[in-house]
Design brief:
Blueprint: H1 6-20, E1 33-38, H2 50-68, E2 72-74, E3 78-79, H3 84-93, H4 97-113, E4 126-127, H5 131-146, E5 150-160, E6 165-167, E7 172-173, E8 176-177, E9 185-194, H6 200-205, E10 211-212, H7 214-224, E11 227-236, E12 241-246, E13 257-260, H8 266-270, H9 276-288, H10 291-294, E14 304-311, E15 318-323, E16 335-338, H11 344-353, H12 392-405, E17 410-415, E18 421-422, E19 424-425, E20 435-438, E21 442-445, H13 475-478, E22 479-481, E23 488-491, E24 495-496, H14 498-501, H15 505-508, H16 521-527, E25 532-536, H17 543-556, E26 568-572, E27 576-577, H18 592-599, H19 601-610, E28 612-613, E29 617-620, H20 622-639, H21 670-688, H22 692-708, H23 714-724, H24 729-738, H25 755-758, E30 762-769, E31 772-780, H26 785-793, H27 796-802, E32 807-813, E33 817-822
Parallel strand pairs: 1-2, 1-25, 3-4, 10-26, 13-15, 25-26, 27-29, 30-33
Antiparallel strand pairs: 5-6, 5-9, 7-8, 9-18, 11-12, 11-14, 11-17, 13-16, 14-15, 19-24, 20-21, 20-23, 22-23, 28-29, 30-31, 32-33
The protein binds one RNA strand through α7, β12, β16, α11 and β28.
Length: about 800
RNA sequence: GCCGAAGUGGCGGAAUUGGUAGACGCACGGGUCUCAAAAACCCGCGAGAUUUUCUCGUAUCGGUUCGAACCCGAUCUUCGGCACCA
C-alpha cells in the first residue's frame, strides 16, 4: 500500500463502480425502496457550478448513508436541457442548441458529475430534450387539456423583450425577467394557461402537513396569497351597484369614500359631466405611468373626484366616489371602500384630499389618534350602530356580513394572489405545444398516437419578437391537417414552458425503459412519492409549486394514487465566496474542476460539507480544500494497514512510530472506546439532521485521538471507513479494501455503537457559586445531591468562595453541575 | 410596510432541553526536524488586569432566572420572500 493518492484511488473506484454496477439498482427486486432525489441541473456550457456540486453532494450523503443503513436507495440524475437558459446561451455563442446541448450533457456527466463520486444510477438518466421524453411532456399537456386543466385565453401577459416571449408570473422577479433581467412589459395576447388556481386551496392547506423546510412553505404560502373577506355592494346614486372586496367588513361604518381604479369601466357610466375632463386627463396620466412606478408605495397618492356618490349599505351615509391609481384593476373588483381610520393607504389619501376620517375600532391607550395615523389593529367596534362593543375582527366581521347578506348586499369571498400558469413560449428550444387549429373543429389536441410532435431541426431558431415562435416561419411545420376532419389546419407553433418538462421528470426515472407510457403504474406505486427531495429554495414558487400542482392534476385524472409528489423536501443553502455572492462580473466563480484536479473529489466534497451549514449555506475559502486533503491524509495514515512512506520530497522525517502495524485485537481502553462509540452515534445523528459540518468535526476528533495516542486498530479502521464513506466515498472504498474486505464498502452496513462505552464512570462536574464557574470536580456518575455535597464543600476553592457567607440555595443538575447560591 | 431566518474570536463556524461559550478547521505565533526551505509533527492562540488567579465578553439596551448565545420586551443591522393585494 502506498501513500494516499487521490487521483489514482478515485480513478480506480470510478472504474470499479462502473464495472461492477455498484450504483445500479434492480428496481423491482428492491425490498426497502428509498427514492433519493436531487434537483436535476441544466447542462450549461460553462460547466458544472460549484453550487450544483454542493447541492448534489449533500443529497448524495443522504443516499449513501441510507444505503449503509440497509435501504435500497434509488439515486438518479438527469438533465433539464430544454428551455431558454440553454437557448439564450446558444444564441450568444452563435451555435445551435441541438448541437450544443448533447455535448454539454456529455461533458457534465463524463467529465464532471462522474468525477465527484455521486451514487447515481446512470442507467436511468433522463434528458428532457429527446423525443422519447418530450413525447410524454406533450402527453401531459394533452392530458391536462382533456381534463379541463389547460385552456387558451386572451389577456394581459408578461412579455420579456430580451427573450422575446411571454413569461409566467412566477418567472418575473421585481418586474425583471428571471433569465435575462430585461424589464418585463405588459401585453395583451392570446396564450395557453394551466389552471393552477383550480387547486389553490389544496395546495395551500396541504402545506401544513408537508415535511418541508419552513422557509419554502412560507414562500409558497405567500405566493398563493389567500385572503378572506367579503364582497360588499354599494349603490351609486343614479347609477349601478358597485361591488368592492374588503378583508375588513367590520370597519364598514368607517368607510367615508370609495375609490375605483382608473381603468374601471364603471367610471364611464358614473362620472359627472363636469368631472369628465379631469377624469380623462387623470386616466391618461395613469396609463402612461409604468407598472413599477405605479406600485411604488412611496409615491404620493393621486386621484380625482368623479362627482358621483355612493350609499354606504350599513348606515346609508352618502360617500364620494374617487378614481385613483392606488387601486388596481387586476385584484378584487377594481374598487374599494376606503376606511382611512384603519388603513394606512386610505389614510394617506384622505389626508391629502381632506376626506373625513371616522374611527370605528377602539385602539389601546397610547396609540396615536386616527386623525394622525391609521390604526389597523385589534379592538372593539365603536360608532358602528348596533355592532358597537363587538370584538372587531372575531365578532364584527361575521356579524356584519351576516346582516348584509340577508339583503343580498354582501357575501363572503376569498381572493388569491396566485394566477393560472401561462405556459406558452414564443421560442424554439422546447417541446412544441401539441395542438392543431382547424377552422371547423377549433383547437384540437394532437392524438396520443401522433405524439411526439417533433421539434423540427431549423437553422434560424432565433426569436423574432413577432409574438410567434420561430417555428411559425416554417410552413412545413405550421401547415398540417386536422386530426378530426382531415381538412387543412395549422399547428400551434409556441413551445411549452421548460417548467413543464421539470414538473414530471421524477416519475420518469423509475420507468425509463417503458417506451409506451410516461411512467409505469407498478413502478410508480413502489417508488413514489419521492422519499427525500433536496434542492434550492429558489424553486419554492416555480418548480416546486408547478410539480405539486401537476401531481394533483394527474391524481385527479386517475393516473396517480397520491397527490403530493415529495414526502420530504429539504432546501439547501447557497454558497458564497469570501463573503460575497459568486458572479462572473466579480470574477469570483469557483470552478470545481480546479479543486477536484488539485486535491481530489473526496477532499473537495469534504470541504464543501465542512465549510458551513448545509441548510444555511457557507463561505468558500481557497485554503479550505487543501486543509481537508490534510485531514484525509491523516485519516488514511490512521486507518490503513500500511500507509506508505512519507510524501515525496520528505527527507525521511516521519515519526518512526506513527505507522506501526494495525492491531487485530478488539479496541481497548475506556477513552478510546468512548471516542469510538460516541463518534459513531454523533455522526449518524448529525447526518440525519443535515449537520454535515459537525459530523465531520466529530470524525476529525476521533482521528485526532487515534493519532495522538498512536492507536492503530483494524476494527477501528473499519469504522472510520464507513463513517467517512458518505462524505469521501472513494477513500472509504480504498481503506475498506485495504483492510481485506472484498466488495464495496457500500455493501456493508453502518457501524453500531454501544451506549455502555459512551457512559463514563466519572464525569466532570461544574461547580458554580452564584452562577459563576468556580471549580470543576471529577466525580463518579449517578451520585445523589447528598453524596455530592460534602465532596463539593471540601474543595478548597469552593470554601474560599463561600467562607463567611450564608448558603441559601443549592441547584443540582445530575452528572453535570452544582450551583451554590450564597449571600 | 408585512412575514421568515440570522447577528458568537483575526476568519469559516460549534454549542441536542436554559447549565463549562468559542468544538472542529483556517490564519497567525513559537518549537522539533533540516545546510536551508517546504511538508510533517508538537505547543500556543477572545479581550483586559494587580496573571497560582480575577474581571469582562455571544449586535445594542432592558427583563425573567440560582444560572441566558439560547426565553421575553424594545432597538439596530444583514439576508430571503411578499408588497398601494384593499
Amino acid at each position: 500500500m502506498a501513500k494516499y493518492d487521490p487521483p489514482a484511488v478515485e480513478a480506480k473506484w470510478r472504474d470499479r463502480w462502473e464495472r461492477d454496477g455498484t450504483n445500479r439498482l434492480d428496481l423491482d427486486r428492491a425490498e426497502r425502496p428509498f427514492y433519493n432525489l436531487m434537483m436535476f441541473p441544466y447542462p450549461s456550457a460553462e460547466g458544472l457550478h460549484v453550487g450544483n456540486v454542493f447541492a448534489f453532494v449533500g443529497s448524495d450523503i443522504q443516499g449513501r448513508y441510507r444505503r449503509l443503513l440497509g435501504w435500497d436507495v434509488f439515486e438518479p440524475l438527469g438533465f433539464d436541457a430544454f428551455g431558454m437558459h440553454s437557448e439564450n446561451f446558444a444564441i450568444k455563442q452563435g451555435r445551435h442548441p441541438a448541437e450544443m446541448v448533447p455535448r454539454n450533457i456529455e461533458h457534465f456527466r463524463e467529465d464532471q458529475l462522474k468525477r465527484i463520486g455521486l451514487m447515481v444510477d446512470w442507467s436511468r438518466q433522463v434528458d428532457t430534450t429527446v423525443p422519447e421524453y418530450y413525447r410524454w411532456t406533450q402527453w401531459m399537456f394533452v392530458t391536462l387539456l382533456r381534463n379541463g386543466l389547460a385552456y387558451r385565453a386572451r389577456g394581459q401577459v408578461n412579455w420579456c423583450p430580451g427573450c422575446k416571449t411571454v413569461l409566467a408570473k412566477e418567472q418575473v422577479i421585481d418586474d425583471l425577467c428571471e433569465r435575462c433581467s430585461s424589464r418585463v412589459e405588459k401585453r395583451e395576447m392570446e396564450q395557453w394557461y394551466f389552471r393552477t388556481t383550480a387547486f389553490q386551496d389544496e395546495l395551500l392547506d396541504e402545506l401544513d402537513r408537508l415535511d418541508w423546510s419552513e422557509r419554502t412553505k412560507t414562500a409558497q404560502r405567500q405566493w398563493i396569497g389567500r385572503s378572506s373577506g367579503a364582497d360588499v355592494a354599494f349603490r351609486i346614486e343614479g347609477g349601478p351597484e358597485l361591488r368592492v372586496f374588503t378583508t375588513r367588513p367590520d370597519t364598514l361604518y368607517g368607510a367615508t369614500y370609495m375609490v375605483v381604479s382608473p381603468e374601471h369601466p364603471v367610471l364611464d357610466e358614473i362620472t359627472a359631466p363636469d368631472r369628465r375632463a379631469d377624469l380623462e386627463e387623470y386616466r391618461r396620466r395613469a396609463a402612461s405611468i409604468s407598472e413599477t412606478d405605479r406600485q411604488d408605495e412611496k409615491r404620493e397618492k393621486t386621484g380625482v373626484f368623479t362627482g358621483a356618490y355612493a350609499v354606504n349599505p350599513v348606515n346609508s351615509a352618502r360617500i364620494p366616489v374617487w378614481a385613483a391609481d392606488y387601486v388596481l384593476m387586476g385584484y378584487g373588483t377594481g374598487a374599494i371602500m376606503a376606511v382611512p381610520a384603519h388603513d394606512a393607504r386610505d389614510h394617506e389619501f384622505a389626508r391629502k384630499f381632506d376626506l373625513p376620517i371616522i374611527q370605528v375600532v377602539s385602539a389601546p391607550p397610547g396609540t396615536p389618534d386616527v386623525q394622525r395615523e391609521a390604526y389597523p389593529g385589534e379592538g372593539t367596534l365603536m360608532n358602528s350602530g348596533p355592532f358597537d362593543g363587538l370584538e372587531a375582527k372575531s365578532q364584527g366581521i361575521p356579524r356584519i356580513i351576516e346582516s348584509l347578506a340577508a339583503e343580498g348586499k354582501a357575501e363572503p369571498r376569498t381572493l388569491y394572489r396566485l394566477r393560472d400558469w401561462c405556459v406558452s413560449r414564443q421560442r424554439y428550444w422546447g417541446p412544441p405545444i401539441p395542438v392543431i387549429y382547424c377552422d371547423k373543429c377549433g383547437a384540437v389536441p394532437v392524438p396520443e398516437k401522433d405524439l411526439p410532435v417533433l421539434l423540427p431541426a431549423i437553422e434560424d431558431f432565433r426569436p423574432d419578437g413577432s409574438g410567434h415562435s420561430p417555428l411559425r416561419r416554417h410552413a412545413e411545420f405550421y401547415n398540417t391537417v386536422c386530426p378530426q376532419c382531415g381538412g387543412h389546419a395549422t399547428r400551434e407553433t409556441d413551445v411549452s414552458d421548460n417548467f413543464l418538462c421539470s414538473a414530471w421528470y421524477f416519475y420518469r426515472y423509475p420507468s425509463t425503459e417503458f417506451a409506451d407510457r410516461p411512467f409505469d403504474a407498478g413502478r410508480t406505486r413502489k417508488w413514489l412519492p419521492v422519499d427525500l427531495y433536496v434542492g434550492g429554495n429558489e424553486h419554492a414558487v416555480l418548480h416546486l409549486l408547478y410539480s405539486r400542482w401537476l401531481c394533483r392534476a394527474l391524481n385527479r385524472a386517475g393516473f396517480l394514487d397520491f397527490a403530493e409528489p415529495y414526502r420530504r423536501f429539504v432546501a439547501h443553502g447557497i454558497i458564497v465566496k469570501d463573503g460575497a455572492k459568486m458572479s462572473k462580473s466579480r470574477g469570483n466563480i469557483v470552478n470545481p474542476d480546479d479543486y477536484v484536479g488539485a486535491y481530489g473529489a473526496d477532499a473537495f466534497r469534504v470541504y464543501l460539507m465542512f465549510m458551513g451549514s448545509y441548510l444555511e449555506g457557507g463561505d468558500f475559502r481557497d485554503g479550505g480544500v487543501r486543509a481537508m486533503k490534510g485531514f484525509l491524509d491523516r485519516l488514511w495514515a490512521a486507518a490503513v494497514p500500511d500507509p506508505g512512506g512519507p510524501p515525496a520530497g520528505d527527507g525521511g522525517n516521519r515519526r518512526p512510530d506513527a505507522a506501526g502495524p494495525l492491531s487485530d485485537a478488539p479496541p481497548e481502553g475506556a477513552e478510546t472506546l468512548f471516542w469510538l462509540h460516541s463518534t459513531i452515534k454523533a455522526v449518524g445523528h448529525d447526518i440525519e439532521r443535515f449537520s454535515y459540518n459537525t459530523a465531520l468535526a466529530r470524525i476529525m476528533e476521533l482521528v485526532n485521538h487515534l493519532t495522538r495516542n498512536r492507536i492503530r486498530n483494524r476494527e477501528i479502521s473499519g469504522v472510520l471507513a464507513r463513517l467517512i464513506a458518505p462524505f469521501a466515498p472513494h477513500l472509504a472504498e480504498e481503506i475498506w479494501e485495504s483492510l481485506g474486505n472484498s466488495g464495496s464498502v457500500f455493501r456493508s452496513s453502518w457501524p453500531s455503537h454501544d451506549e455502555e462505552c459512551i457512559r463514563r464512570p466519572e464525569v466532570e462536574y461544574v461547580v458554580q457559586i452564584n452562577g459563576k464557574l468556580r471549580d470543576r470536580l471529577k466525580l463518579a456518575i449517578g451520585l445523589t445531591p447528598e453524596e455530592i455535597e460534602p465532596l463539593v464543600l471540601s474543595s478548597p476553592v469552593v470554601l474560599r468562595w463561600i467562607e463567611g457567607k450564608e448558603l441559601v440555595k443549592k441547584i443540582y443538575v445530575p452528572d453535570k453541575l452544582i450551583n451554590l447560591v450564597v449571600k
